[in-house]
Protein backbone atom coordinates (compact mmCIF):
# COMPACT_ATOMS: atom_id res chain seq x y z
CA UNK A 1 0.00 0.00 0.00
CA UNK A 2 1.13 3.51 -0.75
CA UNK A 3 1.98 5.54 2.32
CA UNK A 4 2.45 8.89 0.62
CA UNK A 5 -0.47 8.77 -1.76
CA UNK A 6 -0.91 12.15 -3.43
CA UNK A 7 -3.17 11.19 -6.30
CA UNK A 8 -6.01 8.77 -6.01
CA UNK A 9 -8.61 7.79 -8.59
CA UNK A 10 -11.84 6.33 -7.23
CA UNK A 11 -14.51 4.45 -9.09
CA UNK A 12 -17.33 4.99 -6.62
CA UNK A 13 -19.65 2.29 -7.79
CA UNK A 14 -22.96 0.94 -6.61
CA UNK A 15 -21.58 -2.57 -6.40
CA UNK A 16 -17.92 -1.93 -5.67
CA UNK A 17 -15.33 0.73 -5.03
CA UNK A 18 -12.06 0.55 -6.90
CA UNK A 19 -9.16 2.76 -5.97
CA UNK A 20 -6.32 3.53 -8.33
CA UNK A 21 -3.12 5.03 -6.98
CA UNK A 22 -0.80 6.74 -9.41
CA UNK A 23 2.18 4.58 -10.21
CA UNK A 24 0.65 1.52 -8.54
CA UNK A 25 -2.51 0.74 -10.48
CA UNK A 26 -5.70 -0.58 -8.88
CA UNK A 27 -4.79 -1.15 -5.21
CA UNK A 28 -8.24 -1.67 -3.74
CA UNK A 29 -11.33 -3.40 -5.04
CA UNK A 30 -14.00 -3.92 -2.42
CA UNK A 31 -17.79 -4.12 -2.30
CA UNK A 32 -19.59 -0.84 -1.51
CA UNK A 33 -20.88 -2.04 1.84
CA UNK A 34 -20.62 -0.58 5.35
CA UNK A 35 -21.41 -2.31 8.66
CA UNK A 36 -22.22 -0.20 11.71
CA UNK A 37 -23.29 -0.75 15.27
CA UNK A 38 -26.77 0.73 15.54
CA UNK A 39 -26.49 1.29 19.28
CA UNK A 40 -23.53 3.67 19.24
CA UNK A 41 -23.15 4.40 15.50
CA UNK A 42 -19.64 2.89 15.50
CA UNK A 43 -18.25 1.83 12.11
CA UNK A 44 -17.49 -1.88 12.39
CA UNK A 45 -16.19 -2.67 8.95
CA UNK A 46 -16.31 -1.70 5.29
CA UNK A 47 -15.94 -3.58 2.04
CA UNK A 48 -15.65 -7.35 1.87
CA UNK A 49 -15.89 -7.84 5.65
CA UNK A 50 -19.07 -5.80 5.78
CA UNK A 51 -20.52 -7.61 2.78
CA UNK A 52 -20.16 -10.95 4.51
CA UNK A 53 -22.51 -9.53 7.18
CA UNK A 54 -25.28 -8.52 4.70
CA UNK A 55 -28.51 -10.27 5.65
CA UNK A 56 -26.79 -12.08 8.51
CA UNK A 57 -26.51 -9.42 11.22
CA UNK A 58 -27.84 -9.58 14.77
CA UNK A 59 -30.21 -6.82 15.87
CA UNK A 60 -27.63 -4.23 16.86
CA UNK A 61 -25.50 -4.46 13.71
CA UNK A 62 -26.61 -3.17 10.34
CA UNK A 63 -24.82 -3.80 7.04
CA UNK A 64 -25.87 -1.40 4.29
CA UNK A 65 -25.07 -0.44 0.73
CA UNK A 66 -24.84 3.37 0.82
CA UNK A 67 -25.04 3.71 -2.97
CA UNK A 68 -28.10 2.57 -4.80
CA UNK A 69 -28.84 2.80 -8.49
CA UNK A 70 -25.57 4.59 -9.16
CA UNK A 71 -26.17 7.50 -6.78
CA UNK A 72 -25.54 8.23 -3.14
CA UNK A 73 -28.56 7.19 -1.13
CA UNK A 74 -26.91 7.40 2.29
CA UNK A 75 -24.59 10.38 2.34
CA UNK A 76 -23.20 9.87 5.84
CA UNK A 77 -22.32 6.22 5.21
CA UNK A 78 -20.79 6.97 1.80
CA UNK A 79 -18.55 9.53 3.44
CA UNK A 80 -17.47 7.11 6.14
CA UNK A 81 -16.84 4.38 3.59
CA UNK A 82 -14.80 6.71 1.37
CA UNK A 83 -12.78 7.91 4.36
CA UNK A 84 -11.99 4.36 5.33
CA UNK A 85 -10.92 3.35 1.82
CA UNK A 86 -8.79 6.49 1.39
CA UNK A 87 -7.22 5.78 4.79
CA UNK A 88 -6.48 2.22 3.70
CA UNK A 89 -4.59 3.28 0.58
CA UNK A 90 -2.91 6.33 2.10
CA UNK A 91 -1.65 4.66 5.27
CA UNK A 92 -1.09 6.59 8.46
CA UNK A 93 0.41 9.62 6.69
CA UNK A 94 -2.77 10.76 5.05
CA UNK A 95 -3.29 13.52 7.61
CA UNK A 96 -0.01 15.13 6.54
CA UNK A 97 -0.10 14.36 2.83
CA UNK A 98 -3.64 15.00 1.78
CA UNK A 99 -4.26 13.23 -1.51
CA UNK A 100 -5.78 14.77 -4.61
CA UNK A 101 -8.77 12.66 -5.42
CA UNK A 102 -10.61 12.20 -8.68
CA UNK A 103 -13.94 10.45 -8.39
CA UNK A 104 -15.91 8.92 -11.19
CA UNK A 105 -19.64 9.65 -11.28
CA UNK A 106 -22.45 8.45 -13.57
CA UNK A 107 -23.24 10.88 -16.41
CA UNK A 108 -26.86 11.26 -15.28
CA UNK A 109 -25.90 12.57 -11.83
CA UNK A 110 -27.65 15.75 -10.64
CA UNK A 111 -25.87 18.86 -9.32
CA UNK A 112 -26.97 18.00 -5.79
CA UNK A 113 -25.60 14.48 -6.09
CA UNK A 114 -22.35 15.86 -7.54
CA UNK A 115 -22.01 18.16 -4.56
CA UNK A 116 -22.62 15.23 -2.22
CA UNK A 117 -19.84 13.19 -3.87
CA UNK A 118 -17.42 16.12 -3.72
CA UNK A 119 -18.25 16.81 -0.06
CA UNK A 120 -17.77 13.15 0.77
CA UNK A 121 -14.33 13.24 -0.88
CA UNK A 122 -13.31 16.41 0.97
CA UNK A 123 -14.64 15.12 4.27
CA UNK A 124 -12.63 11.98 3.62
CA UNK A 125 -9.41 13.97 3.77
CA UNK A 126 -8.78 14.91 0.13
CA UNK A 127 -6.98 18.18 -0.60
CA UNK A 128 -8.83 18.60 -3.91
CA UNK A 129 -11.67 16.64 -5.42
CA UNK A 130 -12.25 16.35 -9.14
CA UNK A 131 -15.12 14.61 -10.86
CA UNK A 132 -15.05 12.68 -14.08
CA UNK A 133 -18.02 11.20 -15.89
CA UNK A 134 -18.15 7.44 -15.90
CA UNK A 135 -18.24 6.90 -19.70
CA UNK A 136 -15.26 9.19 -20.23
CA UNK A 137 -13.27 7.32 -17.59
CA UNK A 138 -14.43 4.01 -19.06
CA UNK A 139 -13.30 5.04 -22.55
CA UNK A 140 -9.86 6.11 -21.31
CA UNK A 141 -9.56 2.89 -19.30
CA UNK A 142 -10.52 0.83 -22.34
CA UNK A 143 -7.59 2.36 -24.19
CA UNK A 144 -9.64 4.52 -26.56
CA UNK A 145 -7.92 7.67 -27.79
CA UNK A 146 -10.61 10.22 -27.01
CA UNK A 147 -8.51 13.24 -27.96
CA UNK A 148 -9.28 13.05 -31.69
CA UNK A 149 -12.32 14.54 -33.42
CA UNK A 150 -13.68 11.05 -33.96
CA UNK A 151 -16.79 9.38 -32.52
CA UNK A 152 -16.56 6.44 -30.10
CA UNK A 153 -19.42 4.76 -28.31
CA UNK A 154 -18.99 3.32 -24.85
CA UNK A 155 -21.65 1.24 -23.12
CA UNK A 156 -20.79 0.92 -19.43
CA UNK A 157 -23.06 -1.50 -17.59
CA UNK A 158 -22.37 -1.29 -13.88
CA UNK A 159 -24.32 -2.49 -10.87
CA UNK A 160 -26.93 0.24 -10.59
CA UNK A 161 -26.60 2.27 -13.78
CA UNK A 162 -25.84 1.78 -17.43
CA UNK A 163 -24.12 4.74 -19.05
CA UNK A 164 -24.13 4.99 -22.81
CA UNK A 165 -22.10 7.75 -24.36
CA UNK A 166 -20.70 8.99 -27.61
CA UNK A 167 -17.35 10.62 -27.01
CA UNK A 168 -15.29 12.81 -29.29
CA UNK A 169 -12.53 15.34 -28.59
CA UNK A 170 -12.42 14.42 -24.86
CA UNK A 171 -16.06 15.26 -24.37
CA UNK A 172 -19.45 13.56 -24.24
CA UNK A 173 -21.41 14.50 -27.34
CA UNK A 174 -24.52 12.47 -26.60
CA UNK A 175 -25.37 10.20 -23.70
CA UNK A 176 -27.96 8.38 -21.67
CA UNK A 177 -27.81 7.05 -18.15
CA UNK A 178 -30.45 4.59 -17.06
CA UNK A 179 -30.98 2.90 -13.74
CA UNK A 180 -30.98 -0.55 -15.29
CA UNK A 181 -27.83 -2.62 -14.88
CA UNK A 182 -26.39 -5.67 -13.12
CA UNK A 183 -28.54 -5.27 -9.98
CA UNK A 184 -31.72 -5.21 -12.06
CA UNK A 185 -30.60 -8.43 -13.74
CA UNK A 186 -30.47 -10.02 -10.28
CA UNK A 187 -33.93 -8.64 -9.47
CA UNK A 188 -35.21 -9.99 -12.79
CA UNK A 189 -33.97 -13.46 -11.83
CA UNK A 190 -35.64 -13.28 -8.41
CA UNK A 191 -38.93 -12.23 -10.05
CA UNK A 192 -38.66 -14.91 -12.73
CA UNK A 193 -38.02 -17.66 -10.17
CA UNK A 194 -41.03 -16.56 -8.18
CA UNK A 195 -43.27 -16.33 -11.23
CA UNK A 196 -42.17 -19.47 -13.09
CA UNK A 197 -41.07 -21.79 -10.32
CA UNK A 198 -42.92 -20.53 -7.24
CA UNK A 199 -39.63 -20.36 -5.44
CA UNK A 200 -38.15 -17.53 -3.42
CA UNK A 201 -34.41 -17.01 -3.79
CA UNK A 202 -32.04 -14.45 -2.25
CA UNK A 203 -29.94 -11.81 -3.99
CA UNK A 204 -26.76 -13.82 -3.63
CA UNK A 205 -28.28 -16.87 -5.33
CA UNK A 206 -29.56 -14.66 -8.14
CA UNK A 207 -26.06 -13.18 -8.58
CA UNK A 208 -24.56 -16.66 -8.69
CA UNK A 209 -27.09 -17.73 -11.33
CA UNK A 210 -26.38 -14.62 -13.40
CA UNK A 211 -22.66 -15.34 -13.40
CA UNK A 212 -22.88 -19.07 -14.03
CA UNK A 213 -25.72 -19.50 -16.51
CA UNK A 214 -26.88 -15.94 -17.25
CA UNK A 215 -27.01 -15.02 -20.92
CA UNK A 216 -28.72 -12.48 -23.16
CA UNK A 217 -28.03 -14.22 -26.47
CA UNK A 218 -28.73 -17.91 -27.15
CA UNK A 219 -25.75 -20.02 -26.11
CA UNK A 220 -24.36 -22.67 -28.44
CA UNK A 221 -24.72 -25.16 -25.66
CA UNK A 222 -27.29 -24.84 -22.91
CA UNK A 223 -25.92 -24.79 -19.36
CA UNK A 224 -27.70 -25.50 -16.10
CA UNK A 225 -27.40 -24.76 -12.41
CA UNK A 226 -28.95 -26.37 -9.36
CA UNK A 227 -30.23 -23.84 -6.84
CA UNK A 228 -31.90 -23.87 -3.46
CA UNK A 229 -34.69 -21.58 -2.37
CA UNK A 230 -37.91 -21.54 -0.38
CA UNK A 231 -40.99 -23.02 -2.00
CA UNK A 232 -43.79 -20.45 -1.89
CA UNK A 233 -46.43 -23.17 -1.69
CA UNK A 234 -45.03 -25.19 1.21
CA UNK A 235 -42.68 -22.69 2.86
CA UNK A 236 -40.01 -25.40 2.85
CA UNK A 237 -36.57 -25.50 1.18
CA UNK A 238 -36.62 -26.71 -2.42
CA UNK A 239 -33.88 -27.53 -4.93
CA UNK A 240 -34.46 -27.07 -8.65
CA UNK A 241 -32.43 -27.04 -11.86
CA UNK A 242 -32.54 -23.89 -13.99
CA UNK A 243 -31.29 -23.60 -17.58
CA UNK A 244 -29.47 -20.81 -19.40
CA UNK A 245 -32.34 -20.62 -21.91
CA UNK A 246 -34.64 -19.59 -19.06
CA UNK A 247 -32.30 -16.69 -18.31
CA UNK A 248 -32.99 -15.26 -21.79
CA UNK A 249 -36.62 -14.94 -20.78
CA UNK A 250 -35.82 -13.63 -17.29
CA UNK A 251 -33.59 -10.86 -18.68
CA UNK A 252 -35.91 -9.74 -21.46
CA UNK A 253 -37.12 -6.56 -19.78
CA UNK A 254 -33.82 -5.06 -18.52
CA UNK A 255 -32.07 -6.03 -21.76
CA UNK A 256 -34.69 -4.31 -23.90
CA UNK A 257 -34.37 -1.14 -21.84
CA UNK A 258 -30.60 -1.06 -22.35
CA UNK A 259 -31.00 -1.69 -26.09
CA UNK A 260 -33.59 1.11 -26.31
CA UNK A 261 -31.19 3.49 -24.56
CA UNK A 262 -28.39 2.59 -27.00
CA UNK A 263 -30.75 3.08 -29.90
CA UNK A 264 -31.87 6.45 -28.54
CA UNK A 265 -28.30 7.69 -28.21
CA UNK A 266 -27.46 6.55 -31.75
CA UNK A 267 -30.56 8.34 -33.06
CA UNK A 268 -29.56 11.61 -31.41
CA UNK A 269 -25.91 11.42 -32.49
CA UNK A 270 -24.80 13.57 -35.46
CA UNK A 271 -24.44 11.46 -38.63
CA UNK A 272 -20.67 11.97 -39.00
CA UNK A 273 -20.11 10.54 -35.55
CA UNK A 274 -22.49 7.65 -36.20
CA UNK A 275 -20.39 6.82 -39.27
CA UNK A 276 -17.26 6.84 -37.04
CA UNK A 277 -18.96 4.53 -34.54
CA UNK A 278 -19.93 2.16 -37.34
CA UNK A 279 -16.22 2.00 -38.24
CA UNK A 280 -14.78 1.92 -34.72
CA UNK A 281 -17.40 -0.34 -33.20
CA UNK A 282 -19.00 -0.15 -29.74
CA UNK A 283 -16.93 -0.88 -26.63
CA UNK A 284 -18.59 -2.35 -23.54
CA UNK A 285 -17.22 -1.89 -20.03
CA UNK A 286 -18.43 -2.54 -16.47
CA UNK A 287 -19.21 -5.81 -14.69
CA UNK A 288 -22.69 -6.00 -16.20
CA UNK A 289 -21.20 -6.29 -19.69
CA UNK A 290 -19.83 -9.69 -18.66
CA UNK A 291 -23.27 -11.30 -18.84
CA UNK A 292 -22.76 -13.87 -21.55
CA UNK A 293 -23.62 -12.79 -25.11
CA UNK A 294 -24.09 -9.03 -24.51
CA UNK A 295 -21.60 -8.11 -27.25
CA UNK A 296 -23.27 -10.53 -29.68
CA UNK A 297 -26.72 -9.18 -28.88
CA UNK A 298 -25.74 -5.52 -29.41
CA UNK A 299 -23.93 -6.43 -32.62
CA UNK A 300 -27.04 -8.25 -33.86
CA UNK A 301 -29.47 -5.48 -32.89
CA UNK A 302 -27.47 -2.44 -34.02
CA UNK A 303 -25.45 -3.89 -36.87
CA UNK A 304 -22.37 -2.32 -35.24
CA UNK A 305 -19.53 -4.58 -34.19
CA UNK A 306 -19.40 -4.64 -30.39
CA UNK A 307 -16.65 -5.86 -28.08
CA UNK A 308 -16.26 -6.18 -24.32
CA UNK A 309 -13.13 -4.33 -23.18
CA UNK A 310 -10.28 -6.15 -21.55
CA UNK A 311 -10.45 -5.58 -17.76
CA UNK A 312 -14.10 -4.58 -18.22
CA UNK A 313 -14.63 -4.26 -14.45
CA UNK A 314 -11.57 -2.11 -13.71
CA UNK A 315 -11.73 0.05 -16.88
CA UNK A 316 -13.43 2.94 -15.07
CA UNK A 317 -10.92 2.94 -12.20
CA UNK A 318 -7.99 2.69 -14.61
CA UNK A 319 -9.38 5.53 -16.75
CA UNK A 320 -10.10 7.66 -13.68
CA UNK A 321 -6.54 7.16 -12.49
CA UNK A 322 -5.04 7.82 -15.91
CA UNK A 323 -6.96 11.08 -16.18
CA UNK A 324 -5.14 12.30 -13.06
CA UNK A 325 -2.21 12.98 -15.34
CA UNK A 326 -4.11 15.80 -17.00
CA UNK A 327 -5.45 17.34 -13.80
CA UNK A 328 -2.78 20.03 -13.92
CA UNK A 329 -4.00 20.97 -17.39
CA UNK A 330 -7.49 21.24 -16.03
CA UNK A 331 -6.42 23.80 -13.44
CA UNK A 332 -5.41 26.25 -16.11
CA UNK A 333 -8.58 25.53 -18.01
CA UNK A 334 -7.01 23.85 -21.02
CA UNK A 335 -8.66 20.50 -20.59
CA UNK A 336 -12.36 19.99 -20.87
CA UNK A 337 -12.92 16.36 -20.07
CA UNK A 338 -16.69 16.50 -20.08
CA UNK A 339 -18.09 18.04 -16.89
CA UNK A 340 -15.05 17.18 -14.85
CA UNK A 341 -14.43 19.92 -12.40
CA UNK A 342 -12.47 20.91 -9.38
CA UNK A 343 -14.19 21.79 -6.15
CA UNK A 344 -12.79 22.45 -2.72
N1 LIG B 1 -18.74 -12.32 -14.54
C1 LIG B 1 -19.83 -11.59 -14.41
N2 LIG B 1 -20.95 -11.91 -15.08
C2 LIG B 1 -22.07 -11.16 -14.97
N3 LIG B 1 -22.17 -10.07 -14.19
C3 LIG B 1 -21.09 -9.71 -13.50
C4 LIG B 1 -19.86 -10.44 -13.56
N4 LIG B 1 -18.96 -9.84 -12.74
C5 LIG B 1 -19.59 -8.77 -12.21
N5 LIG B 1 -20.87 -8.70 -12.64
C6 LIG B 1 -21.90 -7.73 -12.27
O1 LIG B 1 -21.40 -6.44 -12.52
C7 LIG B 1 -22.05 -5.50 -11.66
C8 LIG B 1 -21.02 -4.59 -11.05
O2 LIG B 1 -20.31 -3.98 -12.06
P1 LIG B 1 -19.33 -2.76 -11.76
O3 LIG B 1 -18.37 -3.16 -10.69
O4 LIG B 1 -18.79 -2.30 -13.06
O5 LIG B 1 -20.40 -1.74 -11.19
P2 LIG B 1 -20.23 -0.44 -10.33
O6 LIG B 1 -19.23 0.44 -10.99
O7 LIG B 1 -20.00 -0.80 -8.91
O8 LIG B 1 -21.71 0.15 -10.46
P3 LIG B 1 -22.26 1.52 -11.07
O9 LIG B 1 -21.44 1.79 -12.30
O10 LIG B 1 -23.67 1.26 -11.38
O11 LIG B 1 -22.09 2.51 -9.99
C9 LIG B 1 -22.76 -6.31 -10.58
O12 LIG B 1 -24.15 -6.28 -10.84
C10 LIG B 1 -22.20 -7.72 -10.79
O13 LIG B 1 -23.16 -8.69 -10.46
TrEMBL record:
GO CC list: cytoplasm
GO MF, one example: ATP binding
One family name in Pfam for this protein: MreB_Mbl
Top-level taxon of origin: Bacteria
InterPro entries with a match to the protein in the record: ATPase_NBD, MreB, MreB_MamK-like
Compartments it resides in: Cytoplasm
Record family assignment: Belongs to the FtsA/MreB family.
NCBIfam families: mreB, PRK13927.1
Protein name stated in the entry: Cell shape-determining protein MreB
Origin species: Brotocaccenecus cirricatena
Gene: mreB
Amino acid sequence: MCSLAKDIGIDLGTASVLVYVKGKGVVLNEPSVVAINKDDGRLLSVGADAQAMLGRTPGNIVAIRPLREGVISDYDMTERMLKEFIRKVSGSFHHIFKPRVIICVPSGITEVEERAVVDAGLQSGASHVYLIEEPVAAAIGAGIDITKPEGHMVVDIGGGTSDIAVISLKGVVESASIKVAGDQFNEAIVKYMRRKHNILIGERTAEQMKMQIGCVFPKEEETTIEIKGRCLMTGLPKTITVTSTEMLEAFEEPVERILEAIHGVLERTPPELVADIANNGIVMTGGGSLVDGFDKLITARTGIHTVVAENAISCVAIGTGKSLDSVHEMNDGTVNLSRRKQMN
